[in-house]
Amino acid sequence: MQELLFQKLPTSIVLTTGEKIMNFVFENRWYSKHEILKQFSIAEKTWKNWLYDEKGKKKKDLASMGIYKLPGTNYWVIDAPKFQDWFNLWIGATDDF
User: I need a surface site. Which of 13, 69, 74, 79 has the fewest CB within 10 A?
Assistant: First the structure.
């Protein structure tokens, strides 16, 4: 599984009319945090702020963001399409034409 996590991200992008929302095309696999940060141009500090409530006290419901912890490890994987849906809702993007 680990060798699949670090494959190159696809570069094809689908833009809707009016460019109100951008949807990346993802391969059917789990992604690492670093791949998602690069794809969505998210800063490390911003990422950490999204994961915790009130200055790092408690983790948020990460499954709603498409982020899952592998049992028995300190490794996290991301369901890219689910994260993209959460991200579009968070920034208020719409796919209205």
Answer: 74
Q: How many domains does the chain have?
A: 1
Which tokens belong to 9?
A: 């991200």
For the chain, give the percent of residues with pLDDT over 70.
Answer: 71
Measured on CA atoms in the order 91, 12, 42, 57, is the torsion positive or negative? Answer: positive
* pTM score above 0.85: no
* Vertex 77 angle, CA 33 and 63, to 5°: 105
- Which single residue is written with the structure tokens 């999204």? 50
Inside any domain, residue 17: no
Non-local (6+) Cβ contacts of 70 within 8 A are 76, 77
